[in-house]
Amino acid sequence: MGMNLKLPFLNSEDSLPGGVTRPTWVVLDLSGPYPERQPGSPLAALLSRTESVEALAAHVQKLRAASWLHGVLVRFGEFTASPASAHAVRGILADLAAEKRVVAYLPQLTMTTLIAASGAGELVAPESAEVNLGGFGVESTFLGEFLKKRGIEFENLRVREYKAALTRFSQDHMDDHNREQLQAYLDGLEAAWANDLAAARGVSPGVAAGWISADFTSAQAALEAGVITKVAYEDELIGPASRPFEAVLDLLTPHRPANAKAGRVAVVPLIGTIITGKSRTNPVPLPLLGGPMAGSDTVVAALRRAKEDKATKAVVLYVNSGGGSALASDLIWREVATCEKPVVVVMGEYAASGGYYVATHARTIVASPYTLTGSIGVVSGKPVMTEFNRRHGLNPERVGRDRALMYSPSRPYTDEERDHVEKGILEVYDRFTARVAEGRNLSRERVNELGRGRIWSGHDALERGLIDELGDLSTGLARARELAGLPHDAPAWNVTPKNHGPLPQFAQEAAQATSVSVWPFGNERVLTWFDQDVRVR
């Protein structure tokens, strides 16, 4: 604990000390959400101003190869990554720490920053660091009563009791089944956190788990418990031979081209709510409406391009999605299931419901311990605006068959219509469980026990046979290379559909982003979807 951490850091505009021709230390700043991949679409890429885990891995690869470099100070700013992304950052820093001395500087000691920083060999916080190690929690606002007071009710038909995708619109409180599954998921995250910190700090998982309830209020208390290795301000760490990462780019050896002779691995992203048609991004931050949407046409076209590419020997499907359209999920599943090349699915923060459906027939499924997965279930519903229309003098008039207008929000379902919808979603649920049983080599009865709409953490999913391995994208790429018999340094390429011209696609996405619908799934009402209003804090 009493080690001397006087590190050689100085502002980049100052000269290096005599006899030193190159900086011996580099400062690497980490801040922002750190998505696993850079956005694949032109519009999303333009709107994104954050670095990705993919880019960080490339930076670290160059730093590892710098023979003149003694160490790296990783300075955490407003680090807002999900636990799953933080775990991927942890692995990258651990790889760097195997080659160089790595010190993490943490002005804020939070659950998520400690996941990422635990890959470093030394953890330092200032005396005044903000400490928030109170465990993980989620909060969801239920809108049922709010909507009802405004004349809007919500039809919510689901299979089965844990399928909570639409409950925050139809109910005014969280039901017992949803509370149970969320608590179990959070328990899994805290167990994974204890394992990560225990491994980093050389203590038992039980000791690390005790840190969550220890009520630390200062960096000094965290130091005394063994959570961190030093209390110091940044200026106490700096010396005369350091530079920011950006200032040493010209000194870093370009990354050696990968061994492409034997073949390569294709990486296909599936990010956001799954819909039919083309992928798009809606920047409106509203439930159901906002964020990236993974179109089945776009994802299928990318998978087909990877299949047809002669140099591609394996495919990695990176999934960060709570699902969406049952139809779109099945169309993507079909491309994975019929691919003659080995397909590895890597799960990000979410791979639930339709996001799990598409993965069932992959050769290998890799997930973070912090991934939210499962939610094998089906839901359907619609808003009912009858009272809203009455209050505001709106009078929808009908002509023709009622069945043709059964999904209209102007009235509730009739009993006959409700039976029709329930029959349809039960058929989709049976298909979903059959896909899981066949792809994961489980009985239908066992899949139903694991299904019923219930979510699982990555760690719990591994124990139950829903995934094959814990890891991240680098793990998935390694498995894909092994399955294809490729060398460990075979290249990976990011796949987009053929003829994906940036300017026409950009214009199309910009036009789509201005169009907002109260139901983003078009005419489809059957969803394998997990409402992504679960943000771990």
From TrEMBL:
InterPro entries: ClpP/crotonase-like_dom_sf, Peptidase_S49, S49_SppA_67K_type_N, S49_SppA_C. Residues 95-238, 340-486 form the Peptidase S49 domain. The keyword Protease applies. It holds the Pfam family Peptidase_S49. Keywords: Hydrolase, Protease, Serine protease. Gene3D superfamilies: 2-enoyl-CoA Hydratase, Chain A, domain 1, 6.20.330.10. It comes from the Bacteria. Belongs to the peptidase S49 family. PANTHER family: PEPTIDASE S49 DOMAIN-CONTAINING PROTEIN, PROTEASE 4. This is Peptidase. It comes from Deinococcus seoulensis.
